[in-house]
Design a protein that fits this description.
By secondary structure, the protein is of the alpha/beta class. It has one domain: Rhodanese-like domain (Oxidized Rhodanese, domain 1). The protein has six helices and five strands. It has a five-stranded parallel β-sheet with strand order 1-5-4-2-3. The longest helix is centred in the first third of the chain and has 23 residues. The chain is globular and about 40 Å long. The relative contact order is 0.19.
């Protein structure tokens, strides 16, 4: 009985921690993303490749390629206390990058839902 209760308690703690981590990354629409990057300047990062970035990016974005070997080193040069806005092309890489940001101590991460595909479909410009 004690073992079952112990396992149940551990499971609850684990689930609570996972739910709390997921809540910390805010997934927002292109409209909300554009409003938030104006309201709270923060740090805007594009995690696509340099070629994708050069083809068009959100104005003010810094390119930090998720698949670059120095990704973690580069993000750790950012201010962990400031909001980090992150996006990619469709959302998969930004989700992965958001997870890495959280694991590295960033407190406020905002992710663009659908990436630049959703951004341009919403009529938002790329530079």
């Amino acid at each position: 009985m004690k073992k079952a209760l112990y396992l149940f308690a551990i499971t609850l703690i684990f689930m609570s921690c996972q739910a709390q981590q997921k809540k910390e990354v805010k997934l927002v629409s292109p409209e909300q993303f554009s409003q938030e990057i104006v309201k709270d300047k923060g740090q805007l990062i594009d995690v696509r490749t340099p070629n994708e970035y050069s083809a068009g990016h959100i104005e003010g974005a810094q390119n930090i390629n998720l698949h670059d070997d120095s990704f973690t080193v580069q993000i750790n040069k950012l201010d962990k206390k400031q909001t980090v806005y992150v996006y990619c092309k469709a959302g998969r890489r930004s989700a992965e990058a958001s997870s890495v940001l959280k694991q590295n101590g960033f407190k406020n991460v905002v992710e663009l839902d659908g990436g630049t595909d959703a951004w341009t479909a919403a009529g938002k410009p790329l530079k």
